[in-house]
Amino acid sequence: MYAQQITINEDQATIHFTFVDKEVDGELSDFTFTGSIDLNALETSTIGGSVATETLDTNNWFRNRHLRSEKYFSTKAHPRLYFKSNTIKSTAMGFRVSGQLTIKGITQDVAWDFTKSEGNLIGVATINTHDYDIKVYDERERNQVTIKIVLPYTQ
Fold first, then answer.
1. What percent of the chain has pLDDT over 90?
2. Residue 2 binned pLDDT confidence (cut-offs 50, 70, 90)
3. What is the pLDDT of residue 9?
4. How far apart are CA 20 and CA 41, in angstroms?
5. Which residues contact 41 (CB under 8 A, 6 or more apart)?
6. Mean pLDDT in the chain?
7. C-alpha angle 50/129/97, rounded to 5°?
8. For the residues of the chain, what is the DSSP string, one character each?
9. d(CA 40, CA 55)
10. What is the pLDDT of residues 45-89, one digit of tens each?
11. Which of 38, 43, 130, 142 gives 21 a disulfide partner, CB atoms 3.0 to 4.6 angstroms apart?
12. How far is 56 from 30, CA to CA, in rounded Å?
């Protein structure tokens, strides 16, 4: 089988998040990709990247300012979120990327389920912001966030 190395188009990538409890959604930008992806050799591929926390946008300037503050994302002290894969395995629908997500200097294991669609890799993961000392709500179960990342690529 031939290598099918792809190039991620960072400037076109989108990161969308939804706080499940209140259906508050938003985006992050200024994405930087690190890694190497061969669609025919996923098990030897790596996926990583970071995004600027100051770009957090919920389409509400007051909420954005609040979420960027020290109480939540602390963007001045922690200007970027980071992800680095540990393993990538094929699944019936695409592939699963397991790795470590770092927010506010706190690192947790996260699994992303990816699919391919018309020149895009689309990954979805669910995290709990409580695990990263971001307690929007006092009750842990209300801090669940779904993250969707769309990574446009060329071959």
1. 92
2. low
3. 97
4. 34
5. 1, 3
6. 95
7. 50
8. ----EEEE-GGG-EEEEEETTTTEEEEEEEEEEEEEEETT-GGG-EEEEEEEEEEEE-S-HHHHHHHHSTTTT-TTT--EEEEEEEEEEE-SSSEEEEEEEEETTEEEEEEEEEEEETTEEEEEEEEEGGGGT--SSSSGGGGEEEEEEEEEEE-
9. 34
10. 999 999 999 999 999 999 999 999 999 999 999 999 999 999 999
11. 142
12. 10
Are residues 123 and 149 in contact, defined by beta-carbon separation less than 8 angstroms? yes
Tokens 């409580």 found at:
130
Neighbours of 143 (CB within 10 A): 20
Write the CB contacts of 149 (distance below 8 Å, at least 6 apart in sequence): 13, 14, 15, 16, 112, 122, 123, 124
Among 113, 55, 114, 46, CA closest to 83: 46
Residue at 146: amino acid letter: T
